[in-house]
Design goal:
four-stranded antiparallel β-sheet; Alpha-Beta Plaits; 4 strands; alpha+beta
Amino acid sequence: MPCILRKPSQACPAANSEPPSLRYHEGSMFIVVWQFEIAEENVAAFEAAYGPNGPWSQLFRASAEFHGTELLRDVYISGNYLTIDRWASEAAFRAFRKEHDAEYESLDRSCDSLTRRETRVGAYTV
């Protein structure tokens, strides 16, 4: 079992082999997960926009408290994606949203045409 799933009191045999961002530190990260359904003709543009080097990640990098985005493509359901955005804390995410609300909303509107459906799966702490 990877360290990210272990409680701090449990031993982690390979603790030093995992990147620091994947080690378990209770309450140390805030994660926002979104699910998207994309039409086949929009896949390339969607992946460019929502990938780790796309405009969403570039906007989020305005905060030193942003720890990265993962874009996951479903292997079995064509056009089904998840994004996982990692922040230092919920407070850091909220501060970012407050400070960059206009840019966030503008980018969100410009990407609306890429998606059939967008659903916030949840916001989590680890």
